[in-house]
């Protein structure tokens, strides 16, 4: 509290004081290095470069913030749900750190009004604000450290915008989302049960693999086939978002598979129609 008061007095004499107060209203404290917060709000479509020619955007901060956010939310969820199983804790954390939730949080705290992006970019229709939220967490970590990040999440985010008990009961159908994506992009998706086994507490467990155009896109484990499929689909969706090499691989596989199918499928003239039903 005293530190904030001292910073506030100092800022009264700065020309850029409005920027500091803008971040203060979101953070609850004054930034030490305001530049890292400003960079957290720069979408790559701006195409800025440093004096050394390196891209200046929020992608590296997003990577860092993603890891910090996972740790903080995992800590909070672990302490809140005492005695709950790993699968439940993992699913609850996933619901909080998924892009839809982060997008909504970014809008609720006003980050969306500060993000800078090119109007030519279509990214404002996707998860740009959620990505900026992650980058913002990365900025807090670099500027103030882990404890301040956790305090921000607990005091500013969870107390005001997230009901943990309600969130834990929320259904997120990752399998449905993956199938919807596959239909939109005309991709073949399949779920295959790899194995069924018994865990240390003698509970049945299921291990499922999801394949896109016959290529492995992820595996998931759960206490039911449905849960294992959901976990596998979640991993596949994350891979599709983050792994450009994998996206290229499945596009190549799609072209190859469809070419083979068209080559090997019989023509209409050669089909044997003797077994087809006829109308009297």
From TrEMBL:
Q: Which ranges carry the RNase III domain?
A: 20-145
Q: What class of enzyme is it?
A: hydrolase
Principal location listed in the UniProt entry: cytoplasm
Superkingdom: Bacteria
Per the Swiss-Prot or TrEMBL record, the active site comprises: 66, 134
Q: What are the annotated GO cellular component locations?
A: cytoplasm
UniProt keyword list: Cytoplasm, Endonuclease, Hydrolase, Magnesium, Metal-binding, mRNA processing, Nuclease, RNA-binding, rRNA processing, rRNA-binding, tRNA processing
Keyword Transmembrane helix attached: no
Swiss-Prot/TrEMBL catalytic activity? Endonucleolytic cleavage to 5'-phosphomonoester
Q: Which Pfam families match?
A: dsrm, Ribonucleas_3_3
Q: Which GO terms describe its biological process?
A: mRNA processing; regulation of gene expression; rRNA processing; tRNA processing
GO molecular-function terms, A-Z: double-stranded RNA binding; metal ion binding; ribonuclease III activity; rRNA binding
**Record PROSITE patterns:** DS_RBD (PS50137), RNASE_3_1 (PS00517), RNASE_3_2 (PS50142)
Concerning InterPro entries, the annotation shows:
dsRBD_dom, RNase_III, RNase_III_dom, RNase_III_sf
Q: Which cofactor does it need?
A: Mg(2+)
Q: Where is the DRBM domain?
A: 173-242
Residue ranges of the region described as Disordered: 251-280
> So what EC number does this one have?
3.1.26.3
The answer to whether the entry has keyword Protease is no
Localisation per UniProt entry: Cytoplasm
Q: Which residues bind Mg(2+)?
A: 62, 131, 134
Annotated function:
Digests double-stranded RNA. Involved in the processing of primary rRNA transcript to yield the immediate precursors to the large and small rRNAs (23S and 16S). Processes some mRNAs, and tRNAs when they are encoded in the rRNA operon. Processes pre-crRNA and tracrRNA of type II CRISPR loci if present in the organism.
Subunit structure, briefly? Homodimer.
Similarity remark:
Belongs to the ribonuclease III family.
The protein, known as: Ribonuclease 3
């Amino acid at each position: 509290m005293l530190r904030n008061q001292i910073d506030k007095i100092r800022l009264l004499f700065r020309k850029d004081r409005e920027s500091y107060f803008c971040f203060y209203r979101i953070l609850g404290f004054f930034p030490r290095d305001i530049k890292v917060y400003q960079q957290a709000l720069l979408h790559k479509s701006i195409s800025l470069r440093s004096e050394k020619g390196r891209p200046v955007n929020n992608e590296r901060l997003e990577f860092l913030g993603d890891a910090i956010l996972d740790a903080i939310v995992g800590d909070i969820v672990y302490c809140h749900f005492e005695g709950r199983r790993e699968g439940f804790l993992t699913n609850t954390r996933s619901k909080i750190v998924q892009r839809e939730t982060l997008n909504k949080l970014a809008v609720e705290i006003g980050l969306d009004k500060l993000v800078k992006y090119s109007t030519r970019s279509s990214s404002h229709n996707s998860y740009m604000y959620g990505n900026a939220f992650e980058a913002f967490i990365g900025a807090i970590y670099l500027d103030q450290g882990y404890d301040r990040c956790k305090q921000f999440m607990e005091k500013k985010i969870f107390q005001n915008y997230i009901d943990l008990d309600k969130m834990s009961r929320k259904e997120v159908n990752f399998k449905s989302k993956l199938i919807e994506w596959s239909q939109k992009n005309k991709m073949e998706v399949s779920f295959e049960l790899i194995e069924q086994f018994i865990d240390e507490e003698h509970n049945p467990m299921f291990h499922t693999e999801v394949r896109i155009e016959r290529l492995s896109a992820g595996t998931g484990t759960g206490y039911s086939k449905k849960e294992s499929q959901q976990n596998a689909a979640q991993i596949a969706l994350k891979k599709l978002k983050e792994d450009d090499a994998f996206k290229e691989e499945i596009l190549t596989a799609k072209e190859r598979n469809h070419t083979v199918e068209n080559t090997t499928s019989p023509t209409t003239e050669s089909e044997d129609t003797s077994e087809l039903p006829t109308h009297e």
